[in-house]
Amino acid sequence: MTICNIDDTITQINAGERLMGLDVGKKSIGIALGDLGHKIASPHRILWRKKFSNDVEELFKEMEELRVGGLVIGWPLLMNGDRGRACDSVRDFAHALMRIRNYPVIFQDERLSTHAVEKSMIEADLTRKKRHNKRDALAASWILQSAFDQYQQSFHLKNKESGRIA
Description:
Layout: E1 3-4, H1 6-12, E2 18-24, E3 28-34, E4 41-48, H2 52-65, E5 68-75, H3 85-100, E6 105-109, H4 113-123, H5 128-161
Parallel strand pairs: 1-6, 2-5, 5-6
Antiparallel strand pairs: 2-3, 3-4
């Protein structure tokens, strides 16, 4: 499978399958799950990284159990929109995954995702420890939700242009 956009991916996955959002970091991978209607993302958990082969084995097992048909991976662009070393690392991670299993992958701009969830957690008066234990899963949810929002906006625009929506 190749790197796709959200519209293509949703049409490629089977009925009854969902998308999984990933916030890939050096020490952890935040995981979020989408609903079957591809509208709502929810934080799922954090996978604390050990060794790549162990991490992907655990990730693929969970994807099978949860009937995941595709991945939305945070694309850590620099604030000016350029790609930096973090994008290289995420791209390499995604390509390594795709060499092992054939899942559609979407890169979704993740600029400000961690900042947005951190701000929300501070406003909710969570302690540093609680924020640390939730941050990456919430960021993955933010990334996946932004892909869903983009898909819904595109879906409505296409239907409006074709005259299906007044």
